[in-house]
Design brief:
4 helices; elongated
Amino acid sequence: MSRVEEMATEKATILLNRAIEAFLLEGSIEQRFAEVNACIDKLEDYEGEISDDLDELKQIRNILASSQQHLGPEHEFEITERLLSLYVGVREGVLIF
């Protein structure tokens, strides 16, 4: 992998982590949704590096979008579980606390 490709992958990973953080922000669903959308828009430029992860983010975003009025415990749990799985996959199985 060339240095340019490595940099693109690193940038995509940083944006992916920001998107995960945006999902977990304290705040209204609208604020979280706006932040997530901004991250996903930026990640579109790196789709070649993270297409599967980007698809998963979009699916999680759709869960959030369908719950605009109220995000029930079952959806919160599903989102958290999927985000953790995504985070572990991005970190190649390494959890950082």
